[in-house]
Amino acid sequence: METLDFVVIGAGWYGLAAAKTHHKLHPQNSLALFEQASSAGGVWAEHRLYPGLKSNNMLGTYEYPDFPMDPETFGVLPGQHIPGQVLHDYLT
Predict the structure, then answer these.
(1) Which positions are tagged coiled coil (predicted)?
(2) What is the number of domains present in the chain?
Protein backbone atom coordinates (compact mmCIF):
# COMPACT_ATOMS: atom_id res chain seq x y z
CA MET A 1 0.00 0.00 0.00
CA GLU A 2 1.31 3.43 -0.95
CA THR A 3 1.78 6.03 1.78
CA LEU A 4 0.98 9.62 0.93
CA ASP A 5 1.87 12.80 2.78
CA PHE A 6 -1.15 14.77 1.58
CA VAL A 7 -4.45 13.83 -0.03
CA VAL A 8 -7.05 16.15 -1.54
CA ILE A 9 -10.56 14.86 -2.12
CA GLY A 10 -12.25 16.70 -4.96
CA ALA A 11 -10.76 18.47 -7.97
CA GLY A 12 -13.04 21.48 -7.90
CA TRP A 13 -11.99 25.09 -7.47
CA TYR A 14 -10.77 24.72 -3.88
CA GLY A 15 -9.40 21.20 -4.18
CA LEU A 16 -7.16 22.26 -7.05
CA ALA A 17 -6.05 25.33 -5.08
CA ALA A 18 -5.30 23.23 -1.99
CA ALA A 19 -3.23 20.73 -3.98
CA LYS A 20 -1.27 23.47 -5.75
CA THR A 21 -0.62 25.39 -2.53
CA HIS A 22 0.53 22.29 -0.65
CA HIS A 23 2.81 21.28 -3.51
CA LYS A 24 4.31 24.77 -3.67
CA LEU A 25 4.96 24.84 0.09
CA HIS A 26 6.07 21.21 0.41
CA PRO A 27 7.43 20.04 -2.98
CA GLN A 28 9.16 17.06 -1.36
CA ASN A 29 5.87 15.58 -0.11
CA SER A 30 3.89 12.97 -1.99
CA LEU A 31 0.49 14.26 -3.03
CA ALA A 32 -2.63 12.71 -4.50
CA LEU A 33 -5.75 14.43 -5.79
CA PHE A 34 -8.87 12.28 -6.06
CA GLU A 35 -11.95 13.19 -8.08
CA GLN A 36 -15.09 11.08 -8.40
CA ALA A 37 -16.28 12.70 -11.63
CA SER A 38 -14.86 12.01 -15.08
CA SER A 39 -13.35 15.51 -15.27
CA ALA A 40 -12.01 18.10 -12.87
CA GLY A 41 -13.78 21.36 -12.22
CA GLY A 42 -16.33 20.61 -9.49
CA VAL A 43 -19.39 22.68 -10.32
CA TRP A 44 -17.72 23.46 -13.65
CA ALA A 45 -16.98 19.81 -14.55
CA GLU A 46 -17.75 18.89 -18.14
CA HIS A 47 -20.76 16.68 -17.35
CA ARG A 48 -22.46 19.55 -15.48
CA LEU A 49 -22.28 22.08 -18.30
CA TYR A 50 -25.19 22.91 -20.60
CA PRO A 51 -25.52 25.31 -23.55
CA GLY A 52 -25.66 28.93 -22.48
CA LEU A 53 -24.44 28.33 -18.91
CA LYS A 54 -22.59 31.33 -17.49
CA SER A 55 -21.24 32.15 -14.07
CA ASN A 56 -22.48 35.09 -12.04
CA ASN A 57 -18.91 36.38 -12.12
CA MET A 58 -17.30 38.68 -14.64
CA LEU A 59 -13.82 38.49 -16.08
CA GLY A 60 -11.20 39.25 -13.43
CA THR A 61 -13.31 38.24 -10.45
CA TYR A 62 -13.05 34.44 -10.64
CA GLU A 63 -9.47 33.31 -11.18
CA TYR A 64 -6.37 32.17 -9.35
CA PRO A 65 -3.97 35.04 -8.55
CA ASP A 66 -1.03 33.41 -10.33
CA PHE A 67 -3.04 32.25 -13.36
CA PRO A 68 -5.04 35.15 -14.79
CA MET A 69 -7.91 34.49 -17.15
CA ASP A 70 -6.69 36.77 -19.90
CA PRO A 71 -9.10 37.77 -22.68
CA GLU A 72 -6.77 36.65 -25.49
CA THR A 73 -6.54 33.07 -24.24
CA PHE A 74 -10.08 32.56 -22.94
CA GLY A 75 -12.10 34.84 -25.22
CA VAL A 76 -13.96 36.65 -22.44
CA LEU A 77 -13.96 40.44 -22.47
CA PRO A 78 -14.01 42.75 -19.45
CA GLY A 79 -17.58 43.23 -18.25
CA GLN A 80 -18.74 39.84 -19.61
CA HIS A 81 -19.97 36.98 -17.46
CA ILE A 82 -17.69 33.95 -17.75
CA PRO A 83 -19.26 31.05 -19.70
CA GLY A 84 -19.31 27.63 -18.04
CA GLN A 85 -17.21 26.03 -20.77
CA VAL A 86 -14.53 28.69 -20.30
CA LEU A 87 -14.42 27.98 -16.56
CA HIS A 88 -14.12 24.26 -17.25
CA ASP A 89 -11.30 24.87 -19.72
CA TYR A 90 -9.58 27.21 -17.25
CA LEU A 91 -9.68 24.61 -14.46
CA THR A 92 -8.63 21.68 -16.60
Answers:
(1) none
(2) 1
